[in-house]
Amino acid sequence: MSHACSSQTPLNYAYSLLARGDYSAVRLSEKLRAKGFTSQDASATVEALQARGHLDDMRLAHGLAERFQNQGFGPRGVRAKLKQRGLTEDVIATALSERLEQTDIEVARRLVQRRFPPAALEEPKTRARAYRLLLRRGYSASVAASVLGREASDD
Prior knowledge:
By secondary structure, the protein is mostly helical. Helix content is 67%, strand content 0%. It has nine helices and no strands.
């Protein structure tokens, strides 16, 4: 199989991709194959990058999980985002198991504080909107209730 740019090695192409952004092993392998490199070349390149410490799905999962959590996503939302990035279920489960529910509560509380003025949260309709926002963002009902109080879910 000939490459689009025969002078470019799979490793050089992989480094050029990694210089522009983060990739999981699966996504990087897909990009290499899409560029015209063989599956064997893609696998060997991914393994070489992993051995050198330049490609680490667990490190990527931790970084992305923190970033998505800081953007206001709850555990289910973070899980979905990580899956979209091509991370395996094992890597996702390990990364998320290391996140504490207390952190979720703090992040969820910051999200609600950014979106709703404290006085507005005294109104049942606004509390219900905030509760639905948290559920949509992937937080559990128990985290939403912890942030807003029990009445929010009682409508």
